Amino acid sequence: MFGDFEILKKCKTTNARVSRFTLNNNTLDLPIFMPVGTYGAIKGVPVEDLKEQMILSNTYHLRNLKKNVKNFMKWKGSMLTDSGGFQIGSLPNVEVTEEGVLFDKKLFTPEESMDIQMGLGADIIMQLDEVVNPNDPIDKIEVACKRSIRWLDRCIKQVYGSEDEENPKRVKENLPQIKLEARNQILFPIVTGGLDDSLRQYSIDEIVKRNPKGLAIGGLSGGEAKSEFARTVLYCTTHLPDSIPRYVMGVGYPEDIVICSALGTDMSDCVYPTRTARFGRMFSDTGDIYITNKLKGETKKRQDCDCFTCKNYSLAYLSMLKGTTNFCILTTIHNMHYMRNLTRRIREAILKDEYPEFIKNYMNTRYEKVPEWIVDVLKKVNVEV
């Protein structure tokens, strides 16, 4: 049934789990990684060649499309759209007010974000939150955290509220899946609060009161120390309900996917795998391969990979192509295949009760010396590497 979330297996050692999340005509196998198609397309990969279960598109960049983007691009898989807040927050001369985000003399509100995302037809839409850097002063983070909850209520009212005008309490304190589910869409709130546990707890408590069918852990991957990032993710997963999917935003390094799965997250996204591919970085368990004019030592890192690129082309050939469109296409195909395969291996290891061993083997294969922050965070979920 649409919106159903079922946990199939929990790791006995870590917080990892394998689950299924049913969306419109598609059931996701979690954990999952979502590549980012900013304008409704993954650069270099035709839609018919996409093998992902789900992709992400950007509301800000598609705000003027005024079409169902899945139908427009003929994408039969699932899609999540972000709220547009991160992209707008990255622009110069942006002003945040209680009403919304003012940029280029235009006001972008929670209500507008909802209207655009509903029109784009994504399976999962995200609330508009106030985006701040996790290293910002605590008073600024607190203001943004509490404003994000108020904006969440405005998002809820925009997508569900017309059915509940006679009962404002229901709009404020619950998240009824009426109006939006009729469109086969689900709204995810975003847990904010920077690196502060008390603010994270405030955000979690307020969001859980509204009974969402899934949520995101946001406000990270903004330059904070990796150890603080991991500690905050673990705090959130430990205090969130088990009964809904947890999406950690902006995570795309392969080792981070392995770690966040161990911490208890189910979904992630990032531009990193596809963007870094275009600059010549190919993922490998034995350490990333850098395609340069001099490939000394890099060929040793290449594994048996059954993606289209690796089955058909040598690293020397790819090196010759560097700087061309064909190069970007071939390296992107490889990195997307690697991320799909990595999450599949994670799911299989959890199902076989072998995830701690998988983590140890992965980290010790990827690094000559495992970084201290990884050692420390994995200890918190009972894994020694």
Automatic annotation (TrEMBL):
Transmembrane segments: none
Keyword field: Zinc
UniProt-listed Gene3D superfamilies: Queuine tRNA-ribosyltransferase-like
GO cellular component, one term: cytosol
GO MF, any single term: tRNA-guanosine(34) queuine transglycosylase activity
Record has rRNA processing as a keyword: no
Pfam families: TGT (PF01702)
Gene Ontology BP annotations: tRNA modification
Residue stretches making up the tRNA-guanine(15) transglycosylase-like domain: 14-367
PANTHER family in UniProt: QUEUINE TRNA-RIBOSYLTRANSFERASE CATALYTIC SUBUNIT 1
The protein's name: Queuine tRNA-ribosyltransferase catalytic subunit 1
Originating organism: Nosema granulosis
